[in-house]
Amino acid sequence: MRYIEPHAHMVSRVTDDYSAMVTAGCRAVCEPAFWAGFDRSSVQGFRDYFCQLTEYEPRRSAQYGLPHYSWLCLNPKEAEDLSLSEEVLALIPSFLDRPNVMGIGEIGLNKNSRNEVSIFEKHVDLAVRHDQMMLIHTPHLEDKWKGTHLIVDILKNHSGVKPGRVIIDHVEEHTVEYVLDAGFWAGITLYPLSKCTSARAIDLVEIYGTQRIWINSACDWGNSDPLAIPKTAILMKRHGHGEEVVDKLIYQNPLQFLSQNPKFHLDEIQV
Amino acid sequence: MNYSQVTDLYFLEARSRLIDVAAFLDRVERSGGQEDFRLKSFRAALRELTTPGSEKAKKVLMLLSDPTTDPIPQAGGKSACGAWPEFQG
Question: Are the beta carbons of B66 and A112 separated by less than 8 Å?
Answer without folding.
Answer: yes
